[in-house]
Amino acid sequence: MSQVFQRQVQIDRPVADVFAWHERPGALARLTPPWEQVEVITAARGVTDGERVVLKSKVGPAWLTWEVAHFDYRRNEQFCDRQIQGPFAHWEHFHRFADDGHGGCVLTDEIHYALPGGGAGALAAGPVEKRLEQMFRYRHAITKSDLELPPQAAGRVLISGASGLIGSALGPFLQTQGWQVDRLVRRASRAPDEIEWDPTTAMINWPERYHCDAVIHLGGAGIADGRWTRKRRETLERSRIESTRTLVNGLRQLTDLPAVFLSGSAIGIYGDRGDAVLTEQSERGQGFLADLCRDWEAEADSAATLGIRTVKLRTGLVMTPAGGALGKLLPVFKSGLGGPLGDGNFWQSWISIDDWLRAIRALLGAEGASGPVNVVAPEPVTQREFATVLGQVLSRPAVVPTPAFAVKLAFGQMADEALLASTRVDPAALRDLSFEFLHPSLENALRHVLGRPA
């Protein structure tokens, strides 16, 4: 039996702008919820008739292949896609765009689908409808918030670490904002938007007469991906220091320099500071992580000597279920075994993935912004509060504590400096830019990225 799902959203932008946003590279990735495990096998070159998309989507333990073809394209009115191969007996998705009578746009997503298995398949109609509502609530929130951002000039941007947790979200976001995105890759380039580099040999294979307007450097091995053995500490240092030095020295080779260089850093530079409120003017802390961030930022400062506006992104815990701290905690909390680490009284400074992306956009356009910038939400929480809120969002208890000695036994030095350190960080520089957070509160952020409305 055929089912129809429909959902609408009003967007305060002209129809032509909303339609153009959907045609840009990166739109599909930008609209994919972070809790979904999706791998794009073949990307379409647009949404015109005949263009096809092939992707794999994980449903439970199984990976399913989807192939859809676009049809009935009408510029500024609609585009559609039909399942060629996939889990449904039938699937057609109509994306419709209409003027709201006040200069804005009403976007309607309408899906006609049938489940396989006849009567037995019909039993799954309820869960499918719920999942579609969850997905399109997220998609419409993203579309509306992205399109209603203040207008800003775009250009060409080069990203290192573009395949990482944050970089893989940044590229599509900037593409849908009108930026042309190039990526540094540690292999031979396979596409016009890829540039080969190798920080271990200080090599960048620049295309002839290459120019970009901005560079965003996100390279570096994961801080919390393993115990800080001597070898691991060397890897953490080398991956940040060598890559930043290689990139800045590579920029010296260009005839036409970029206007701005945004370089990754971390709030770990402040160390374990108890209840102290930390701004960009606060002194550096003590320990391996603080020293690493100091040296990392010092390499980035070399770009400023070239006359490039340089911003050091002191990032907190980025809230996304796709990985990082939240990704690691979710299985434990979903099982009902989550709870605070240690005494739970230390501070954690965090930011939603979408506010992080919006902050990068703001910093690209803020010509007066330079130096360190705390990329965190305005409402840090104690670790106990974090555990409580995550449990509430997931509708699970969060009362099983992990003693500090157990964390230290498992992670060694990393436990003291990264997992149990108290960093109560204030985004003073972003506030000075009048930056508006979509998700100032942790509960609001978690409900958004996990698709769990109140």
Describe this protein's structure:
The protein is of the alpha/beta class. The protein folds into two domains: 146 residues, Alpha-D-Glucose-1,6-Bisphosphate, Chain A, domain 4 (2-Layer Sandwich), CATH 3.30.530; 295 residues, Rossmann fold (3-Layer(aba) Sandwich). It has 14 helices and 21 strands. Strands 11-10-9-8-12-13-15-19 form an eight-stranded mixed β-sheet, with helices on both faces. A seven-stranded antiparallel β-sheet has the order 1-7-6-5-4-3-2. Strand 12, helix 6 and strand 13 form a beta-alpha-beta unit. Helix 11 crosses helix 12. The chain is globular and about 65 Å long. It starts with a strand and ends with a helix. The relative contact order is 0.10.
Overall structural domain count: 2
Name the helicity range. Answer: 25-40%
CATH superfamily of the largest domain: NAD(P)-binding Rossmann-like Domain
Number of contiguous helices: 14
Return Rg in Å.
23 Å
Keywords:
Alpha-D-Glucose-1,6-Bisphosphate, Chain A, domain 4, 2 domains, single chain, eight-stranded mixed β-sheet, seven-stranded antiparallel β-sheet, globular, alpha/beta, Rossmann fold, 454 residues, 35% helix
Mind sketching the topology for me?
Layout (H helix, E strand, L loop, with lengths): L1 E10 L3 H9 L3 H5 L6 E5 L9 E8 L2 E13 L3 E8 L4 E10 L5 E10 L3 H5 L2 H23 L8 E5 L6 H10 L3 E6 L8 E5 L4 E2 L9 E4 L12 H23 L7 E7 L10 E2 L9 H17 L4 E7 L1 E3 L4 H11 L12 E2 L1 E3 H13 L5 E5 L5 E2 H12 L9 H8 L1 H7 L4 E2 L2 H5 L9 H9 L4
Helix pairs in contact: 6-7, 10-14, 11-12
